[in-house]
Every structure is written in C-alpha cells, then in structure tokens.
Amino acid sequence: MTSWEAEPANHDDETGLVDQAASGDRAAFEVLYRRHRDRVYGLVWRLAGGDAGLAEDLLQEAFVRAWRKLDSFRGDSQFGTWLYRLAVNVALSDRRIRMRQVRRETALEGPVERAMPGDLDVRAGHQMDLEQAIAQLPERARAVLVLYDVEGYSHAEIAEITGMAVGSSKAQLHRARKLVREELEK
Fold this sequence. Notes:
single chain; mainly alpha; Rna Polymerase Sigma Factor, Chain: A; Arc Repressor Mutant, subunit A; 2 domains
C-alpha cells in the first residue's frame, strides 16, 4: 500500500496524484479511481434510473474519459468536482443518445409497454417508490435533485458541475421535487 492509499484524500494530495496520473502514472490514477468510484457509481446509478448494468457502463466510461482528459484538468476546482461533472455529462449524453434511438425504432405491435432505463415503467395497481419517481424526471431536473438532495452538493457546486446557472439549479430542484411529490401521491 502506498502512502496515498493510507491517508484520507485532501486537495493537495489529489493535486499530486492528478499530476502524476496526467503524466502517465497508472498507479496514481488507480488511487484516484478507488477514492471516487463509489460516489461516482451512486451518482450515475441514480441518473441511470437505478439500472445497475447501465450504471457500471457509465462509471467505466466516466473514468475512461477522465484518464483521456486528465491533461485538461486545470485545478480550478477539486478533482472530485471535475470528475463528477464529467460523470454527469457522460450520463446525460448517454440518455440523449438512447432517447434518439428509441424514437427511431418502429413501434411494436400490440399492447406492449416499452420503457428505457430511467423512464416510467407502468405497472397498474402498483405505487411508485422514490427511486422510480426520480428515474422518470427530465434529465436536468433529475441531475439537480440527485446532486443536491442525495449527494449533498450546494447550488453553486451544481452550477459548476452541470454548467447551468445557480438560479437554474434552484428552479430545477423546485421542479423536480414538485414532480416527485405529484408522482408519489398517485
């Protein structure tokens, strides 16, 4: 075990690890991966509507992109903030691509309900639970709700992660909570 793994993460320590990883040190990147994988997984799992397989794919894609883009990390924010923004972008991009694919598919014949991970899965007579209600939210509202209420980020941090204004983050949170409440009351 290296001294990096024995100590809790701090900003200076991570800056050194990021610098080493950016210069090709895979062991340093592995330490970063181990420190952040669980939190990134939780984030993409919720953004993927609770689909564990999709969340695993998104987790891997986020870290592959992080490895490739380490040289673009300027250190203006903490590495974790940069990584979570990248993971949110990976998840939202994947959802947009999947939605386009579903729209292009031809309709199935008969009374078959088709749903994508994260979309409403209609089951007559069953009340939706919280995760299902969150999963059906529009992508921006879902991202803000997950980042604020589940992950504990501030609106300023969410604005940095998602690239939206602080006011938009607050409005999306209000919208998301209202939609979830409405869905849970059904």
